[in-house]
Amino acid sequence: MDEYCIGLNRQALFSDETSNFRIPEEPDTGDRTVLRFRTAKNDADTVYYVEEEKGLQARMIKVSSDGVFDYYEYVVVVGEKPRFYYFKIKKGEEICYYNRLGVVTEQPENYMFRITPGFHTPEWAKGAVMYQIFVDRFCQGNLDNDVCSREYVYIGRPVSRIEDWGQIPSAMDVGCFYGGDLQGVWDKLDYLQHLGVEVIYFNPLFVSPSNHKYDTQDYDHIDPHYGVIVKDGGDLVAEDACDNEHATRYQIRVASPENLNASDAFFAQFMEEVHRRGMKVIIDGVFNHCGSFNKWLDRELIYARQGKYEPGAYESEESPYRTFFKFYKENEWPYNSSYDGWWGHDTLPKLNYDSEALYEYILEIARKWVSPPYCVDGWRLDVAADLGNSSQMNHKFWHDFRKQVKEANPEAIILAEHYGDPRSWLEGDQWDTVMNYDAFMEPVTWFLTGMEKHSDEYNGGLYGDGKAFFQMMRYNMSHMQTPSLLVAMNQLSNHDHSRFLTRTNQMVGRTGTVGPEMASVNVKPAVMREAVMIQMTWPGAPTLYYGDEAGVCGWTDPDSRRTFPWGHEDFEMMDFHRYMIAIHKNLPALRRGSIKQLAADHQLIAYGRMYGSNKCAVAVNNGDYERQLELPVWEIGVVGHPIMRRLMFTYTDGYNAGIKEYEVKDGKVEVKLPPYSGILLSVGEKR
Fold first, then answer.
1. Strand residue runs (E) in 170-286
2. Strand partners, 668
3. Which domain holds residue 401?
4. What are 97-131's pLDDT values in tens digits?
5. Element (H, E) at 180
6. How far is it, in rounded angstroms, from Cα 367 to Cα 402?
7. Global confidence as pTM
8. 584, 614, 634: which is the final residue of a domain?
């Protein structure tokens, strides 16, 4: 480390918002909180704690040293308002600053560290291994609840029951049903536990006419096609039917109290079994819009024909749900189709939160499902930034939503779908966190494949650019406080984008342009394993999309919604996931630790994680040539350890989970990385 003796050693400078450098990590009002900062030993003249807003610049006290570093501390008593701060480091005439972006020569206003009094995210969710299930395509457990072909008409045509589980989804897939259900998930809980899954995230479960169920028909009940049908009968529609006047079987199945109550009771039993196993469940809440089948609107007259429900707002101006929607024409009743649709889609009526009755109804739904007898462990919020007709209304609603959910179940997580800067929702009073597109899925995808997440674009400039990878990560991670970052949903694939394994073929395409078969042509499992290594070692909650671990390919929606290939799994890929999940779960540094960049180059990234005595180093060579690399593990505090243990090594032809020891010399570890490889080293882990 002699090369750092001239001038301030900037590689040694470090602090963050984890419990390594802030104690307590998530302080409450009145808490005495210790803030720590690290420099190279005997390097800095002075370190300052700075709060610009208060005009405060306080000298920090050096409290300890080890063989490599000095540690400085400053104590604050947390008040009622958020506190924004950064660090200033001085050596002779040299001055630099340290904030959420790391070492900077000037202090940008937007990237300060932040203490938000009382902002806590659930402990169980920090670094939790999650698993997303698109229910219709995961596993068929109950044949009696399957959607029948011609059971009803959806978007102008009768729906279809797909008899061949392995059939690839068609371009018009939304009305096609394969028969997956909650019983099928129950049947596979042993599989999920063996894989290492801790949390199941379900795409929507409530009554809905589509296979994706993002057009909710009834927020009060689990769809009997996923649950239990105890009352059946009625007729199917004709092959050329264009409406649901004669869809009496569907009307009975989804609107009969017997089926709805039985399905809710089944879900309560399912939740009891999941919790008995020590697992959690997050469900999908689609509260920006509903569906044209929704009982409040009832455009299909499903509920009107039952004779047991209040009239829908489409049918009658006197409907109790009239204010739940915005109608542009007041003289169109009965059958008023002039309502506001999300992005103009009349199948997706936008909910009107100017209605106090709707506002309170949705808040009651929010409480209901996280309360007994269901005790769901959290909500994933669909298109959450779009809700309401103004920014003010949106933030007010999510503030009230949080209050209701946390009162009912303090350990429930609130996780939103969001693209772009989420800061205004992550101030501690609304969402807990987000689906982590900007600070995980996109940078990983660009670096490893050069592909946009829908496979709609290839960018050779970002492909393999290690420096751009870290720049994107730092910038977007800085938009989240660490409590949010540690529970963020880190996915490689999901139901809205192409499968990551397909992106490794670096081909621009969709199922409608190049055909579904091309999704699995020239894919690179070695690159997929690199991605999984990053996923399981990056801050946040690594979230598998069902079937990724089994080698499923697919273009973007609907092709990414192929069925789980039971009996045809890629067992090598599955075992690799199982090994990496186990490593992730066993190492505190990977669940809760700080992260520090160690190296960045063309087709190369390396970084470290730190948590107490546990230190991990990860290096990924995404190039088609061998790399020799000296990892500066001293930067993550590997001090006084003669060896680090290799826990995983993946390369072009496979992977090796055998333990191998690497010598640490002068704070560095020399590793050889063959093409398309990744290595994980650790010290101080649990034995």
1. 176-177, 199-202, 206-207, 218-222, 280-285
2. 665
3. 126-247+256-290+344-584
4. 999 999 998 876 789 999 999 999 999 999 999 99
5. none
6. 10
7. 0.97
8. 584
